[in-house]
Every structure is written in structure tokens, then in C-alpha cells.
Specification:
Helices cover about 30% and strands about 25% of the residues. The chain is α/β, with parallel strands linked by helices. The protein folds into three domains: about 1-135, Rossmann fold (3-Layer(aba) Sandwich); about 155-370, ANL, N-terminal domain (Rossmann fold); about 375-470, GMP Synthetase, Chain A, domain 3, CATH 3.30.300. The strands form four sheets. Strands 1, 2, 9, 10, 11, 12, 13, 14, 15, 16, 17, 18, 19 and 20 form a 14-stranded mixed sheet that branches.
Length: about 475
């Protein structure tokens, strides 16, 4: 699709990063020159597995296009990976080479995998002919263990449902300018990049997120859309912005759970611009909530996109009644049920488990309750951390919070909350706030005040880091 855009609009700006604009023709030429260097110097071709470890920049896009052009599989590496996590990714994904930005070169070299500079180029020699472009391998977020690889074939048809839904439910059109604040090594960020370039649009990006700079870039480049994770929305709301600051007409949040409180605050500040996308590395974009959905059904992730089926399945393997909670399954052209290495996701009637618990309302909107493996059984009651976290977020003095279970001889699991406060908040203040918002069994038996909640680049709570932080087995 990038090459089609380059043929039709060679001088249109394909992307803007910290180094300025790059046209479609220059992007394709740079990718071809990088592919020649990869083939000549590193012998990359069909069967090779190339890791890419770059922040949101032209280097990321060029490395991806160049590797795929040679028929190599491209593994997108989280820029937060260090130590054991990076070693595991390199080993499990059988990497032949990693194209790494200078800031990551040393830590990648420590894995023993060869490293290439993303600025490599060669203008000599013809590009080899390959039977097909390589696959993309997306790594799951790995919040509770080592990330697993989700392979995806480059398939234009798989994008059609997302394209159709985005056009129908938003005000975006061909040639759109999109500010991509979400990391592009995650499924959400990569999908937005692909969608923008497929629309012959311009992808605007920064290597590091800053709320003030992001809103200013949107203004300067007249962006039609801003793509973020919920944690970025919270930072934008807390930023020292001009009173007349505006967002683009479409702000799409995804990657992790969007608190109804954050959604309401954002809408009050910037108007009906917020959309909420739901999906995963395995199923891609599955549902999309519009501003009207978020206003009339707070907390919903919306209705399925074109070509996607959603089912909520009970313990007996059958769909549950409308409004009942069960396991969320999704299916469509983009769904993948097998990881690199052969491990498989649970499937029911051709639908793939998302790993979430949720319910469908009478209008077919999906409401996600939380992760299956996050559910806490305390004193015989099932407790979903997301419900408690949403209630905590409603307190003006709470910046961030997460809930988890700690092994307890009496209750099985003791519900505990980590809280980041703005001022001199006490545990009694928090419990008093929760008394009218959640059931008694949903209230934490312990509250710990911390400076920061560990989160990954997608804004999800890093459960493994939480366990290390509290020094106990939390889940």
C-alpha cells in the first residue's frame, strides 16, 4: 500500500518525525536503499528474522519496510525491553539481526544477536526478487510473563473491516494527517500507521511522548486524528495547556482499559472527540466506541467493527445471556490463534479468546470487566480489579491506582490497592471515597501509597513489576 501511495502521490508527505518531513517517494527510496544494505552486508532474505528496536520515527518505518521487502519476518521489539526480557525475545523469536537505534545498540549486542544501524543504505545492485513479503511478528504486552510472538501475514483484505468501520464511524478520510503518540511496536500503533499510509495520509510522530508538545504538533500540522493510550489522555488533562487548546476532531484511545472517569473528563474539556478502540495482538481491532457510545454507555468499548464477530462465552462453552459476564471471544479476518513456536489461544466456534472478561448489552455494545487472569477471589467473592481502579480514579486527589490480590491464609487473596496521590491523602480518605462506589467485598483491605504505578508502553499495569515492587505474590 505504501508503494501504491508513492506511485500516486510521490511528493505528498508520508511522515513527519523529530527530523522533519519525508515524502512517499523518499520513504520508498530510503526503504529500498536500506533493503540493499541488509541484503549485501547482512545477507538478509526469505527465512531471516529481523528485530526492529526503534522509537516512533522514520527509522522504525524504513526498517520495517526494508526487511519485509526482502521477504524477512519482522519482529517488533518493545523499546522498554532490558535484560532477561530482551534475551527471551531474541531467543524465542530466533532473531538473525536487530536493527536498533543507537541508544539501544549496546543492550541488544549483549544478547549476542548482530546489530545493524537503522541509517544503513546502499545504492548499488538490484533488489532481489522474493515470492512474498515477510510476516510481521507482534509481541504480546507480557504484563504477567515473557511476551509471545503473534505472526501476521501482510494482507490488504484483513485491513478492510477496520478501514470500513473507521470511515463509517469517524470523520477521517483519505489523506488524513494522524498524530501517532502510541508506540508503533504495539498492535494499536502499527495498525494506525498502516491505516494512515493506506489512506495516503501523513503520519506525525515523536520519539517520546510529551502532552504539551503533542497537542502543539497537532495544531501546527492541522492533524485530523490523535492516537493515544489512556495514560496519555490523563497526562494531557493534567498538563499546563492554554485555555483555548484544542485536540484534533478524532482522538482514538486504545491499548489498555479506558476509565469512564477519564473519558468523561476528556469529553468535558475537549468536546465529543473521543473514541475508544478495543482489541489485542491476537485479534487486532475488534470493537470501536464512538463519542455517543461513551456518553450514553460509560465504560463501553463499543460495537464490533465490520467483519468481526464478538461472543461472550460461559464456563460451559456456550454464549451467556445478554448482560451476563463471561469470557470474551472475537473472530474475523485479522484473528490469529497460534503464536510463534506453536502455542495456541483458546478458540470456540472459530472465535479466539481475547483473555478478557466482559458482557454484551442489549444494543450489542461490549463492556470489558477485566482480564481473566486478573480476577481476584477474596473471601469467596469474585473481584475485578478494573472496577475498583475505575472507582479510585474518580477521586480528584488520586493520580493513578491499581488493584491486585496478595496471598492470604484467611481470605485466600487479600485485595490490595496501590495509590499515587496528589497530596496528603490517607487510607481512611480512600475507603470513605469508595464506601458509596463499590460493594463492601470490592474494597481493598490494604492501601499502599507509592510514587508511581509500573506500566508498560501501552499503558497497561505491569503486573510482574508490581509483584517486584510490593515484594509479594500479587496477581
Amino acid at each position: 500500500m505504501v508503494r501504491l501511495s508513492a506511485a500516486r502521490w510521490p511528493m505528498r508527505v508520508a511522515l513527519r518525525d523529530d527530523n522533519g518531513p519525508l515524502t512517499y517517494r523518499a520513504l520508498v527510496d530510503s526503504a529500498d536503499d536500506a533493503a540493499r544494505a541488509l541484503a549485501d552486508v547482512h545477507r538478509i532474505g526469505p527465512g531471516s528474522r529481523v528485530g526492529v528496536m526503534c522509537r516512533n520515527s522514520r527509522d522504525f518505518v524504513i526498517a520495517l519496510l526494508a526487511s519485509a521487502r526482502l521477504g524477512a519476518d519482522v519482529v517488533l521489539l518493545n523499546t522498554d525491553f532490558r535484560g532477561a526480557a530482551l534475551d527471551a525475545a531474541a531467543t524465542q523469536q530466533r532473531l538473525s539481526l536487530v536493527i536498533a537505534a543507537a541508544e539501544f545498540a549496546d543492550i541488544v549486542s549483549a544478547t549476542g544477536v548482530p546489530v545493524a544501524d537503522p541509517g544503513m543504505r546502499s545504492v548499488h545492485g538490484a533488489l532481489p526478487s522474493v515470492p512474498r513479503e515477510g510476516r510481521l511478528v507482534l509481541l504480546t504486552s507480557g504484563t504477567t510473563g515473557n511476551p509471545r510472538g503473534v505472526p501476521r501475514d501482510p494482507d490488504i483484505g484483513a485491513l478492510l473491516g477496520m478501514v470500513t468501520t473507521v470511515l463509517a464511524r469517524t470523520r477521517l478520510r483519505c489523506g488524513m494527517r494522524t498524530m501517532i503518540a502510541v508506540p508503533m511496536f504495539h498492535a494499536f500503533g502499527l495498525a494506525v500507521l498502516g491505516l494512515t499510509l493506506s489512506f495516503s495520509g501523513t503520519a506525525v510522530m515523536r520519539e517520546r511522548f510529551d502532552p504539551v508538545a503533542t497537542i502543539d504538533l497537532c495544531r501546527r500540522h492541522e492533524a485530523h486524528a490523535l492516537m493515544v493510550v489512556p495514560a496519555m489522555l490523563a497526562r494531557i488533562l493534567d498538563a499546563d495547556l492554554p485555555a483555548d487548546a484544542k485536540t484534533p476532531p478524532v482522538v482514538l484511545s486504545g491499548g489498555s482499559a479506558l476509565s469512564p472517569i477519564t473519558a468523561a473528563r476528556f469529553t468535558e474539556r475537549f468536546g465529543d472527540v473521543l473514541y475508544n478502540g478495543y482489541g489485542s495482538s491476537e485479534v487486532a481491532l475488534a470493537t470501536l466506541a464512538t463519542p455517543d457510545d461513551l456518553r450514553t454507555r460509560p465504560g463501553t468499548v463499543g460495537k464490533p467493527i465490520e467483519g468481526v464477530r464478538i461472543a461472550v462465552i460461559g464456563d460451559d462453552g456456550r454464549p451467556v445471556p445478554t448482560g451476563a459476564t463471561g469470557r470474551v471471544f472475537a473472530g474475523g479476518a485479522s484473528a490469529v490463534d497460534e503464536y510463534v513456536g506453536g502455542a495456541r489461544k483458546d478458540t470456540v466456534a472459530g472465535l479466539v479468546s481475547t483473555g478478557d472478561l466482559g458482557r454484551l448489552d442489549g444494543d450489542g455494545r461490549l463492556h470489558v470487566i477485566g482480564r481473566e487472569d486478573d480476577m481476584i477471589v477474596s473471601g469467596g467473592e469474585n473481584v475485578y480489579p478494573q472496577a475498583l481502579e475505575n472507582a479510585l480514579a474518580a477521586h480528584d486527589g488520586i493520580v493513578d491506582a491499581c488493584a491486585f490480590g496478595v496471598a492470604d491464609d484467611r481470605f485466600g487473596q487479600r485485595l490490595t490497592a496501590l495509590v499515587v496521590s496528589r497530596g496528603s491523602l490517607t487510607s481512611d480518605d480512600v475507603i470513605d471515597h469508595l464506601s458509596t462506589r463499590v460493594s463492601r467485598y470490592e474494597r481493598p483491605r490494604e492501601i499502599r501509597f507509592v510514587d508511581e504505578i509500573p506500566r508498560n508502553a501501552a499503558g497497561k499495569v505491569d503486573r510482574a513489576a508490581v509483584r517486584r515492587l510490593v515484594g509479594e505474590e500479587a496477581r
